[in-house]
Amino acid sequence: MLKKNLSTAAPVWDDAQIRAEDQARVAALRQSPGWTKRLLLLLTLIGPGILVMIADNDAGGVITYAQTGATYGIGFFIPALVVGGFIAYVVQEMTVRLGAVTHRGHAEMIWGRYGAFWGWFSLIDLVVANILTLITEFIGITVGMSVFGVPPVVSALGGIVVDGLILLVLRYRAWERVSLWIAAGNLIFVPLALMAHPHWGAVVGAFQHWAIPGGFTAAFLFVVLANFGTTIAPWMLFFQQSSVVDKGLTVADVRHGQVDTALGTLAMVVVAVALVILTGTFAYGRPGAANYDIQQIMQVIGQHLGATGQDLFALGLVEAGTIAAIALTASTSWAMGEAFHWPKSINLPFQKAWKFYVPGLVSAGMAAGVVLIPNAPLGFLNLTVQVVASIFMPAAMLFLLLLLNDHDIMGVHVNRRWQNISAYSIVGLLVILNGLYGLSVVFPKLF
User: Fold this and answer.
1) Domain coordinates in residue numbering, the chain
2) What letter does residue 170 receive in the DSSP assignment?
3) How far, in Å, CA of 255 to CA of 45, rounded?
4) What pLDDT, on the 0 to 100 scale, is given for residue 413?
5) One CATH from 1.10.8, 1.20.1740, 3.40.1000, 3.40.1350 for 21-442
6) Which of 56, 192, 221, 379 has its CA 20 to 30 A from that of 250?
């Protein structure tokens, strides 16, 4: 059954029943011999990792990577994005284990383990960051659709309608598969980068001579934080863990969850690098390129690749905003449902779980409203949102690490030593970068 029952007259699906049926299907595939069944098992279990990573290449990320390539070329940031992919995998793999072992979402774990104070802290952190990030998604949707002559009001309302229909009509399994098909559109930036015919020797040379173009400045630090903010963000922790739980994954599925996350990481890095190569080839070095907004960048792409290239980039921008809006809306709803013990599954119909669905949809509506404010500084707002996400991330990471090192919760699945070293190094790096950025704001002449 693909659709949730929205009629009050018909029987209502129970999310536990649906999840049990999904788990029974997985158990049957696991016991079946043959490589075809193994492949089918993998295809059945993948989803949360690919979705969270590709949704991380959201409209704000596309804009950030495009502006990064236009400003700094294909030197420093291509290796940095590869490192960022490793960081993202280390972080998100932990949410797979935590969700599969506990069968509880991230917000529910924090409230249950550390009490209401830290529960409220993490929830407010997440909701604020999600609304801010959703603003960037609707920036991408409205800007992308403007290339086709669609007014911002129409494109913003269209984005909300698509998001709402997918969330309200489909049960989890169908919701995930439809979202994966939408996410596949993110790959459009790869052929666009190939069409740019970049100097591949320069791309390889970026790994051999990793240098900061223009020196270490406050502006460079701001862009670094923006790139980190779009690579790892608090919503990703809540989304993937809750998605793992709603999908019904168990400890036996952890390996497949790790493969799922690795595949998503690879796709995320490839697309991010493609964007930097694309704009680094076409826009970098042009007068004023460091201050280009996304509309100017699309015009440059159109000058080199024609109207088709510009249209494909615009469609990719719309796709990026749409898939991220779907993920962010679900993330907010899951977190609110877990925190307040509301029904909290995409398997449930609206009339049974309206408290679960409303927060996510309201947050999307608020974000769309901000984007429609006349003369809003959308380009500056986009980069600022990514920096805010980077600033919020260390606190979210610390909660995750505390949970992953709790033997009472995780048992034999606690973090290994190398995982803790990697994770605490990531937290330390973010704290240092945030501290340096704070110093650059207070003492602008320091750098």
Assistant:
1) 21-442
2) B
3) 10
4) 92
5) 1.20.1740
6) 56
Q: Take residue 162 and report the two structure tokens written for it.
A: 């698509």
d(CA 134, CA 322): 10
Q: Could you give the C-alpha distances from 335 to 109, 110, 327, 418, 434, in angstroms and in order? A: 10, 10, 12, 29, 26
- Let me know: does 304 contact 94? Beta carbons within 8 Å: no
Q: Reduce the DSSP state of residue 405 to 3 states and report it.
A: coil
Pull the structure tokens for residue 98: 């935590």
| Assigned token pair, 140 | 């991408």
Beta-carbon contacts of 272 under 8 Å, excluding residues fewer than 6 positions away, are 57, 61, 65, 81, 84, 85, 231
Is pLDDT of 247 > 90?
no
**245-274 burial string, b = 16+ CB within 10 Å, else e?**
bbbbbeeebbebbbebbbbbbebbbbbbbb
| Residue 331 to residue 327: CA distance in whole angstroms | 6
Q: Give the whole-angstrom CA distance, residue 387 versus residue 223.
A: 8
Mean pLDDT value of segment 172-188: 92
Q: Quick one: which of 388, 396, 379 has its CA closest to 59? A: 379
CA pair distance 104, 242, nearest whole angstrom: 7
How many CB atoms lie under 10 A from the CB of residue 150? 16
| First-residue to last-residue Cα distance in the chain | 59
The continuous run of DSSP H or E covering 113 comes out as helix 106-146
- The total of other beta-carbon atoms located within 10 Å of residue 87's CB is 20
Nearest to 252 by CA among 15, 26, 22: 26
Please calculate the CA angle 335-387-267 and round it to the nearest 5 degrees. 70
Cα(301)–Cα(282) distance, integer angstroms: 7
Q: Give per-residue pLDDT as tens, 202-224.
A: 888 878 777 777 667 777 777 77
Measured distance CA(239)–CA(21) in Å, rounded? 22
State how far the Cα of 403 lies from the Cα of 98, in Å rounded to an integer.
Answer: 8
Q: Residue 3: phi, psi to the nearest 5?
A: -105, 145
